[in-house]
What does this fold into?
Amino acid sequence: MIELKNVTKQYPGQPHPAVDSLTLTVPEGEICVLVGPSGCGKSTTLRMINRMIEPSAGSITINGQSVMNNDPDHLRMGIGYVIQQIGLLPHRTIAENIAIVPRLYKWPKEKIVRRVDELLVMMGLDPEKTRSKYPSQLSGGQMQRVGVARAMAVDPPIMLMDEPFGAVDPIARTHLQDEFLRLQKEIRKTIVFVTHDINEAIKMGDKIAIFGEGKLVQFGTPEEVLTNPANEFVENFIGYDRIVKKLFLYQVQEAYRPAVCRLRPEEIGNALSKMLAEKAEVAFVLNEADKPCGYLTREELEQEETARDADGLQKLAARRSKAFVQTTTPLPDALSVMLEYDAEYVGVLKNGLLEGVMSFKDIRRHVYRREGE
It folds into this structure.
């Protein structure tokens, strides 16, 4: 969709190029995140794509057509653009701000009204309460949503986003990130996204381009970048918690094992015998509706001091009644559940039924197996 070949931007009087011989391809329908320290050339690259800044050398093509062969204003009308400062016109209502590009395309008034309301709903805003307000009457998070809505007004295939969530508080930022990723699964835009935050890059990007001093230092999937940093600069930029960051790339369904041993209420008194017979290290206790309500471990049952009757075992298992996660739970959240309930294992649920079991060893095994691939 977007291809940059040997693109350079040299400002007069500067000893080094702002962007130096950049070659990069952004596949259709993916989010490519440009990340790096301040002054590394990522925002300059973004602005050269829609010709807000003209390149000094090299070529930029969209769908095989050079951006230099297109009128800049016409080019920008077909590309959604979102910036950190949001850039809403303060003297125009929210509806009027969103309608700017559709009006340039001379859409009928009725079509514009429908599109504005459709986008406000898509962004989680109530059209009746929002369309007639002015930007100053909205919160930072709401204005950011309107900025995204305006960029999507004419349904452009490409969106450029320059630190789009950087101006809002951390809670709102996380929510906006999550909502945008959910939306992207439906709309599948080709997006170039600039940030200085490596954690945001890992979360948002299908591909990550790490910049340093105007040069592309490494390009790949988040997993590739975290697993095999190209050099010391990338290692330092990612941080020493590289392995912890990798956890956010995986879900429980990638690391759990099938749950082998299950105990019905009438079997709990013979829990240890059943676990030994099935060579299981953990047994999940199910209620009459086959819903899991806790678990027992073979290690604790083999300790003489924990020997107790069926009621005692039921109470022991019930201490882990909340030590369960879903197959789609991110691994960091599963690890948090283990720590919160001081649990060696978590049960894995799918549609409310027991699907499997996962331990800390399973998490570690999965991460380091991927590390070695």
Observations:
- The CA atoms of residues 324 and 346 lie 5 Å apart.
- The chain has two domains: 2-247, 252-372.
- The chain is about 40% helix and 25% strand.
